[in-house]
Design brief:
This protein is mostly helical. It has eight helices and two strands, in the order H-E-E-H-H-H-H-H-H-H. Helix content is 54%, strand content 4%.
């Protein structure tokens, strides 16, 4: 004889949300993540002090991926935003805060539309159309100075300065922007950033940093320090 009693598949301490409550919890968690990192965005962004680990280590940063990686998140939608930020960091290396804030703002607008009884699939379809329009607008406004080395370098300098404006080395952004652009220009057509080696040395100042041709080692660094 087959028993028709319900089978318990969840942990006795598990909590289960359905329908509107589950949707609301997702919105609240994701929007909270956006609000957390929003104040670190841009050149006027503020740093966050993070205390993590069993040894209560302290880290000061305004990098979105670093902040989100070191906070405890148990909300499903919030975890998606954390994953988005980490993927952006690994694939691009910049814009980690921007993607989290953008996704949170989209969800905030979606919450308002859902409260008006607009179906989620309709909202997603509208976003997909908006992505196509945005791509077309960006493509129409792009400039290609690949064959003009002077203008091409100026474009790269503007990109590098913008990227460094919100970093801790903002005061030396011209120095590091020049080094970054020089390093990239030396790659020629390959574009393989793995060919650029970064060597860190304890002591000194940010302004002591330099770009050297060929392979770098301690002897090269010591010789350069003697010249300075």
């Amino acid at each position: 004889m087959v028993s028709l009693n319900p089978v318990q598949i969840l942990s006795p301490n598990a909590e289960q949300d359905k329908a509107e409550n589950a949707r609301l919890n997702c919105f609240v968690g994701a929007i909270a993540i956006g609000d957390l990192v929003k104040s670190t965005l841009g050149p006027k962004g503020m740093d966050k002090i993070i205390v993590f680990g069993s040894r209560k280590e302290i880290q000061v940063t305004n990098d979105g991926a670093t902040i989100l990686k070191n906070i405890g998140v148990d909300n499903a939608a919030a975890k998606v935003l954390v994953d988005i930020s980490q993927v952006q960091d690994s694939e691009v290396g910049d814009g980690t805060t921007s993607v989290a804030v953008l996704a949170a703002e989209l969800l905030k607008e979606a919450e308002a539309m859902i409260s008006q009884k607009i179906h989620p699939q309709t909202i997603v379809a509208g976003w997909r159309e908006a992505v196509a329009v945005a791509k077309d607008a960006l493509t129409a406004s792009t400039l290609n100075h690949k064959h003009d080395e002077v203008k091409f370098r100026a474009d790269l300098m503007n990109i590098a300065r913008t990227t460094l404006s919100s970093k801790i080395l903002n005061q030396h952004k011209d120095l590091f922007a020049n080094m970054a652009v020089d390093a990239v220009m030396r790659l020629r057509e390959s574009g393989n950033l793995e060919h650029i080696q970064i060597i860190k040395k304890t002591g000194g100042q940010l302004s002591d940093s330099f770009l050297d041709e060929g392979a770098g080692n301690d002897r090269v660094l010591d010789r350069h320090a003697e010249h300075r």
